[in-house]
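Inverse folding, one chain.
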């Protein structure tokens, strides 16, 4: 895949007071470069940076927001390659018109529990937001670019 038509990908999840922070981080790292193996060459020394922000729930309970922005083209390719593992990948492509906004952003919600186990499924818990390159910056062009990259991903999978 020579060119990636995404400026960046943001991944975000919440860690509620009843959840184990390390497990939630592990679920998020399922999508990040170096997250699935300990010996990834470019991320051997330092894991991909995850930002942590503390918040408070309605009843005063602690909520930790874990987020990461992936901007490097090779790292974005990695995140997209993880999406190719979706069982419902063809459905995702069919739903692009509903998943791309007027601001040329692609939104997905991924299953946090499945991600903890190393699986990739649409569901609840992890938000994926990718800024799709589109010139002119119109939704129609963004949908077309996103469809092109996802179809290339699907065709590359063995």
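Residues assigned per position:
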């Amino acid at each position: 895949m020579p060119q990636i038509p995404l400026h960046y990908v943001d991944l975000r999840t919440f860690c509620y007071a009843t959840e184990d922070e390390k497990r939630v981080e592990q679920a998020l790292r399922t999508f990040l470069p170096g997250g699935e193996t300990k010996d990834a060459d470019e991320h051997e020394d330092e894991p991909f940076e995850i930002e942590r922000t503390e918040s408070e729930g309605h009843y005063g309970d602690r909520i930790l927001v874990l987020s990461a922005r992936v901007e490097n083209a090779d790292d974005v390719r990695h995140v997209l390659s993880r999406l190719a593992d979706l069982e419902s990948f063809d459905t995702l492509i069919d739903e692009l018109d509903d998943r791309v906004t007027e601001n040329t952003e692609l939104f997905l919600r991924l299953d946090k529990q499945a991600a903890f186990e190393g699986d990739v499924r649409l569901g609840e818990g992890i938000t994926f937001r990718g800024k799709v390159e589109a010139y002119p910056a119109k939704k129609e062009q963004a949908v077309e670019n996103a469809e092109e990259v996802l179809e290339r991903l699907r065709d590359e999978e063995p």
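The longest strand covers residues 6-16. The chain has six helices and five strands.
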